Amino acid sequence: MSHARWLLIAALFAASCDDNDAATVDAAPQLDVAVADAAPDAAPDATPDATPDATADAALDAAPDAAPPIVWPAVAADNALPPDHRLAEGQHRFLYDTWSTELGDSWPPADFMLALLRDEPEFFGEQFSAFGFVPDPNRDLPFGLARGSADPTRFHHTCAVCHVSRLPDGRVWIGAPNTALDFGRFNVEVNARWVAAGNLPLMTDLEREKLLQLGPGRTNAESGDYPQVVPVDFPAYFRLGPRAHFNYLGTGRDVRTEAYLALYALFSGDPEDPGSPYGVFPEEAVFDTVVAFLSELDPPAGPAQDAALVARGAAVFVEAGCADCHHREAPGDDGVIPIDKADDGRDRQPGEDPEWPRGAIHTSPLHRVLIDGDGEEGGGGIDPGRLRLITFIGRHGLRVGLTDGYRVPTLDGLWATAPYLHNGTVPTLAALLERTGDRLVIFDNRGFTVDTGLLANLNRGHEFGVDLPPADKAALVAWLNTL
């Protein structure tokens, strides 16, 4: 399996929830040029003025030869689409389709997984709910886990594994990050029982060690032999259609690219080689139904807030300069803020410093290592894994590009996505409005201790709004909780 290929996938799609494949941090500085050479017709920029409806319709219209609509099974989620909705196929495939990735044998067989539920109900809970999975009353496995689509005797996670959540008020919401899911520990416990049954391990000792450092609501931005865990929290999938930068680094330029490369990351070998034992990438006519579905997911309404506080908070958002980066009415304008990597670096708002016209953020640079590399030069020529990825990008007309920082996140459904920052190291919105030195060094996240003194858990950065009066901070938090 190509190391360079998995570097690019980790760098492009740090939010992927696959912890079972290999990756390294070999540099990949020529992605833009290489993609241009491999696919000169691929568009380099997204269309930031696109609406979710337009994006969804375009994805569906791109598949004129698709089968006639059918009525899909009902889904037990509070924001689920009805079975006869035009996007119901995409919803169904997002939730339940494994896309033949089970053929890669990265999980034990389905019968083994179901036996865990039967034999250790107190440890694993109802449908693995002890690890944060959301039970699906219409099936015998939770949202995000399924029998294989190509081989039902096998087992794999689906696209929904990190993106169906039970909200604090009890609602089940598709697209919300599952902040309760300890996917790393779940992998470790399943592996332990698989080995105890006389089978070869599904992970190395290093992978096991790193998975146990994640805790709830986070996955690893890389997987394999890189010695340092690089945690990222699960992203929300709300109102993706209008966005022009995706994943934490902003390297994907539209929702279609995000979806295609996220699924590409789950495959082994060449996902478009018909002779591959791991299955092949689905036809565009089929997978574009998922793209259309993802383009229109809305956030859940948050808890009721004091109307006067909310009104003041909306004004503070503008007065404090928050709107200079977070474009509420035009999310396609949300860009990438460079990282100030200097030891004495600091945060800057756009327009504050002419040397940093887009502003700057002084935060953990670990994720940038995955795409910037460590300065080592490889051998001559292009790595076969990278070439396959570039060919895939060109063949499907995907839009990618290198960046120099972190994408500005949209604020939709913010109340349901704590803890905050890209690595989930600030527990509350109120804490995010404090200076780094005043933030909690250690806090409990659903029984897991988050130690922000560790390199992977740095909670520095985004020191914006820290000097606001307490009343304005409270008002701003109240308004943010309504989005």
Describe the structure.
This protein is mainly α. The chain is globular, with a radius of gyration of 22 Å. α9 (255-264) packs across α10. 29% of the residues lie in helices and 7% in strands. The protein has two domains: 3-294, no CATH class; 307-377 and 408-480, no CATH class. The model is unreliable at 1-49 and 370-378 (pLDDT under 50). The strands form five sheets. Strands 1-2 form a two-stranded antiparallel ribbon. Strands 3-4 form a two-stranded antiparallel sheet.
Question: Which helices and strands appear, and what pairs or packs with what?
Answer:
Layout: H1 3-12, H2 31-38, H3 52-61, H4 88-96, H5 110-119, H6 121-124, E1 145-147, E2 155-157, E3 164-166, E4 172-174, H7 183-196, H8 205-211, E5 218-220, E6 231-233, H9 255-264, H10 284-294, H11 307-319, E7 336-338, H12 366-372, H13 384-395, E8 405-407, H14 429-432, E9 442-445, E10 448-451, H15 470-480
Antiparallel strand pairs: 1-2, 3-4, 5-6, 7-8, 9-10
Q: What is the percentage of strand-forming residues?
A: 5-15%
Strand order of the largest sheet: 1-2
- What is the succession of H and E elements? HHHHHHEEEEHHEEHHHEHHEHEEH
Number of strands: 10
Fraction of residues in helix: 25-40%
Domain count: 2
**Which outline best applies?**
globular
The radius of gyration is 22 Å
State the helix count. 15
Structural class category? mainly alpha
Largest sheet: 2 strands, antiparallel
Terminal residue distance: 42 Å
Mean pLDDT: 82
Quaternary state of this entry equals single chain
